[in-house]
Design a protein that fits this description.
CATH topology: TIM Barrel
Strand content: 15-25%
Order of helices and strands: EHEHEHEHHEHEHEEEEEEHHHH
Oligomer: single chain
Number of helices: 11
Number of strands: 12
Strand order of the largest sheet: 7-8-9-6-5-4-3-2-1-10-11-12
Bound molecules: iron/sulfur cluster
């Protein structure tokens, strides 16, 4: 029997982090001043092996998961990732196997990932202006490598791609039109994301949020937009088509238009912690039960138990009080990949 949570939501989506490491230092996720050269990332034995990941995903599928998204940190850093994708793509019941990447290493891996059975890729790209890109990625790199990665993924059949851009007031709001123009007329869909108070290290403030309504207006003044229906219930992005037929654009408005009611997402960190909301605390350990000889049934019952008592609706609560509703320890963005 597939469990429903305390708000009647089924478990349909699993976001699985395969590493806590990244080759970028985006300030809203992994600020360079906190994640320097000496930062102690998880030692290899602490992260789930491919065998453990496959076993866990099979158990989640038995509980209702149909969509699987591979995240990080930066998942392309995990060695031999196509081998893992191949194992996961063979699991009956997975209808959509996707990956979220910063795109920097994508050109090198796109063909192998597609051949392994990956369905599609979402690329995070917060700017096209080289200086703004460096600021938003906390790196010396330029956006060209990411654009090459997007082209390679499309050529490998992993498109149309979704391009995610986190918009911050005073940092990259001028990139909204630039990104919209760059991908207009292509099959790729840019989704502009309201800056969120994920974790405890990104110095979030409501004043730094560019509201989805303002983003839509900003684009619509130049290129008229028409709202589109959701592709499926619980879809996080609000969709718009260009009235002149030049494609689609979206906004993800967790701050101003929360979507917790339709949230069917669970997350598992690289070291095997089950997290029921992006704004949760540390989550529930699954690695111990996987490694201490518990049966599949026992591990599945732990997941079922956690999901059945889930009542998360953080973004709704935040919208209700107009600011962060929980202080103290919260899972960090790089641990769950958003
Ligand atoms: S805030 Fe939590 S419950 Fe709401 S949509 Fe995000 S992950 Fe789901």
């Amino acid at each position: 029997m597939e469990p429903l949570d305390a708000l009647g939501r089924p478990l349909r989506d699993l976001r699985l982090s395969v590493t806590d490491r990244c080759n970028f230092r985006c300030p809203y996720c992994m600020p360079a001043e906190l994640f320097g050269e000496r930062y102690a990332f998880l030692p290899r034995p602490e992260i789930l092996s491919f065998e453990e990941i496959e076993r866990l995903v099979r158990l989640f599928v038995e509980l209702g998961v149909r969509k699987l998204r591979i995240t990080g940190g930066e998942p392309l850093i995990r060695a031999e990732l196509p081998r893992l994708i191949e194992r996961l793509a063979r699991i009956d019941g997975i209808e959509d196997l996707a990956l979220t990447s910063n795109g920097f290493l994508l050109a090198r891996h796109a063909v192998a990932l597609a051949d392994a059975g990956l369905s599609r890729v979402t690329v995070s790209l917060d700017a096209l202006d080289p200086e703004v890109f460096k600021t938003m990625s906390g790196s010396p790199h330029e956006p060209e490598r990411v654009l090459e990665g997007i082209a390679a993924a499309a050529d490998a059949g992993l498109g149309p791609l979704k391009i995610n851009c986190v918009v911050q007031q005073g940092v990259n709001e001028d990139e909204v039109l630039r990104l919209a123009e760059h991908f207009r007329g292509t099959p790729h869909i840019v989704r502009f994301i309201e800056f969120m108070d994920v974790g405890t290290r990104n110095r979030w403030d409501l004043d730094r949020v560019v509201r989805a309504g303002d983003i839509v207006e900003r684009i619509g003044q130049r290129y008229p937009l028409e709202p589109l229906d959701a592709n499926y219930p619980g879809e996080v992005a609000r969709r718009y088509r260009y009235a002149d037929g030049q494609g689609e654009v979206g906004v993800i408005a967790s701050v101003t238009q929360p979507f917790c009611r339709g949230c069917t997402r669970a997350r598992v960190t690289a070291e095997g912690r089950l997290v029921t909301c992006l704004f949760s605390d540390a989550g529930v350990d699954l690695k111990g039960p996987l490694r201490d000889g518990r049966s599949d049934e026992a591990v599945r019952d732990i997941v079922r138990g956690v999901w059945s008592t889930r009542s998360d609706r953080y973004s709704e609560e935040r919208a209700g009080v107009g600011g962060p509703v929980r202080s103290g320890r919260r899972i960090e963005m790089y641990q769950v990949g958003g």
